[in-house]
């Protein structure tokens, strides 16, 4: 019985397909020139967390996951294999590796300890696209109105904004940008990124 | 396109926002005591000034928070943004 459950779980895991899986080859081709790197990071764990930042629960949660919740708007904080993105004055997205969701939900809920806190696994809501390389800013500038200059939007900055009219969570890292895109918008955004990249890719 | 400064996120394109009409419309103390006419007045009647107007906006494509702004309806200049629950700032 336990074996058959494990087998069916394994089978359903094997059938998982990420929202931008079909773009892997075209992303790789666009990345070949070296000026730009496009890729998908599939299946990251994403937990939406809502809690009053001044509450004892917020402090307990920061301690429990080893990352104090960033309270400055538009910033991220990281520690270990987790990253906490500011989404609003009482809202964060806790991002972790594939498979971390059940344990993470348990740790967050435990730390909340019955206080007025919301912990929701939204991992399937979005996939993550990487836009990196020297031309990453140029590509994003085709469809994003934010000033992405490193002086304004350097590593550790986060913005929920629009890219080519699609809602995205844009995260600046030391090694380029990550775009958290809703699964149903992933193919559109992937097509748009490839189209915006043409002039930076063709001819190397 | 207006550039609207979200009190949380800073200046963003108008396309990221949703308009919410006149701000500071108080809910009636005792709604059941109102006549139909008074209730309709609360629901549907709004100021329509030429000049400074305190109004609600929601940063729907960003932090998804509601806030208030004082906008000049004649020039579209935004004179102040402030968080929900804060009093309307006095503008000289
Ligand atoms: Zn905002």
What structural class do you assign from the helix and strand content of chain A?
alpha+beta
Helix content bin of chain A: 25-40%
Identify the biggest protein-protein contact and residues per side. A-B, 14 and 12 residues
Q: What is the CATH first-level class name of chain B?
A: Alpha Beta
The appropriate CATH architecture of chain A is 2-Layer Sandwich
Largest sheet of chain A: 5 strands, antiparallel
Number of helices of chain B: 1
Radius of gyration of chain B: 15 Å
Strand coverage percent of chain B: 35-45%
- Span of the ends, CA to CA of chain B: 26 Å
* Poorly predicted runs of chain B: none
Individual helix count of chain A? 6
Spatial order of strands in the largest sheet of chain A: 1-7-10-9-8
Overall geometric form of chain A = globular
Q: How many separate domains make up the residues of chain A?
A: 1
Low-confidence parts of chain A, pLDDT < 50 over ≥5 residues? none
Please tell me the overall pLDDT of chain A. 94
Q: What is the CATH level 1 assignment of chain A?
A: Alpha Beta
